[in-house]
């Protein structure tokens, strides 16, 4: 069917494709976009409000009419951007050429083994491997992703090795819906065991006896993780014991093991609250609750030895604090501060070692790493020298060591891995990600700006550009990105793909808007639920700042965001379409009210405390006031490229599809409006390190084409 539609579109174009050299705009006068059929469907809220959704029918992926429509949109996009195909290929090859194809991660030591992953030239997927005793020893391959991915249109996989290092759980998703299948490999023989568990949504957490492991599975309707099970090797998975079941539909549970390897921790939570349970790792008794669920209280539990749990929590601490609690009675009345709440510093997390704690914090939107010695509570900070950067604690499985691994990157510095000796304070650069070609970090400039938002709040914004191309005269093209939800902070990180924008004169900015936690716990609270519009306002105000201060031309600014960041894109398109020349909205969550009303859609109830419960009229009306799909109007919009994945379980494909269909009928401009659906993937797009770059190249070509940049 897809080929037929493509051929029809190509035939309809015929010889009428024209190019105006003066305006540098390609025109396709005879090509008409697909038009989705209008089928009115009434949606009634519990408090009586009625909405009519003309494209509700698109939510049936088993309906051939739906598939035909998605294929027609893909064909339309291919045709309308066909003149950029050579440029897309050039961008793809350019981006790929910067990647060191035969690359490997920095090995980490665990007991007698050094574990790492590596890529081979031309390989799409990682090879997980190890060496015993020394890095000069022979390599043992745990799993070769290129072999595993043969014949599969999609693959995402990872491994979990047993405590005795003799077995490995191979955990893989072949659809992109985040449903994983677990298989077990005997690393002593190289053979696969008969054990097979399907449809899990977690890693495999091994017991210390190496005979069993724990995992979590989703509710088949809502897809929230609702059970933790234990699998005994050699046993049919249908007999796996349910260790815990979460009956509250607003909560999702997971399972992990403490750093001491003495306890299994089961955590269950939602966006505003969580609680945890524990039991000895090899004795799966009924899990013991540490502290019951309490509204607006989050906490995570670890154990590094001794008689106390270490608990990271926001109880009475908007910026989080670290407490300890006796294992014999860990209730909240016995929690004692180790690191108290501070008004100016956000506590991101802690890692534990024999003699030290490594603490990750954020101050004024910038990451800090602090080392605390247990013996005398003395502390010191690591120093970082750029105005906009990010640093974070790395993989540190060893406990009896003075060395902590951390990563560092900025918008001009490729991702770098350091080993830092907490005793001597010496650091060693273990690896800086190679960027092939003529890249020199000195050719690029990064800045960090505090933008005054309309309500007076100071919003951090990180900016990068190529020095020789940049002129602060209001003529530059620009690209601004943000996320702004769930408390996820968007850091000022490096991207080798982004160089293709910078080298063509694009100014790139990341707006650290409310809804993330870049500026602390209040920053998140001030961008969620009944404060959600602050995220949109912050983004628009940062965009205007770039234009008003000469960084970007008023008619050359592009914006992008994905998932909840796609909601952001939909919101700013309705609120301030005149600010942007074009917008890329990836896997966009744009139909907020309908999705939050449908409790059969995966993860809906789990997200009520992020967006609102539509059964509560005040929250319903607030969501309705900004919902991108519900607020599409008959007016001019900029150029738009929306993307989705047919198998996406986090933001269902029909949200962007309905949004584009409605925009087509109402928008009054002649700007491009495209929908791309990856028919083989889910929320993360194409799998493989190179295939996904083709999607990046398409998005870049979409923007460059509008700007008249062809090479």
Automatic annotation (TrEMBL):
SUPFAM superfamilies per record: alpha/beta-Hydrolases, Peptidase/esterase 'gauge' domain
Domain of life per record: Bacteria
One family name in Pfam for this protein: Peptidase_S9
Keyword Hydrolase belongs to the record: yes
Alphabetical UniProt keywords: Hydrolase, Protease, Serine protease
One annotated GO molecular function: serine-type endopeptidase activity
InterPro entries membership: AB_hydrolase_fold, Pept_S9A_N, Peptidase_S9_cat, Peptidase_S9A, Serine_Peptidase_S9A
Domain Peptidase S9 prolyl oligopeptidase catalytic: 494-708
Any single biological process term in GO: proteolysis
Occurrences of domain Peptidase S9A N-terminal (ranges): 42-432
Protein family according to the UniProt entry: Belongs to the peptidase S9A family.
Function: Cleaves peptide bonds on the C-terminal side of prolyl residues within peptides that are up to approximately 30 amino acids long. Has an absolute requirement for an X-Pro bond in the trans configuration immediately preceding the Pro-Y scissible bond.
Protein name: Proline-specific endopeptidase
Biological source species: Belliella baltica (strain DSM 15883 / CIP 108006 / LMG 21964 / BA134)
Taxonomic lineage: Bacteria, Pseudomonadati, Bacteroidota, Cytophagia, Cytophagales
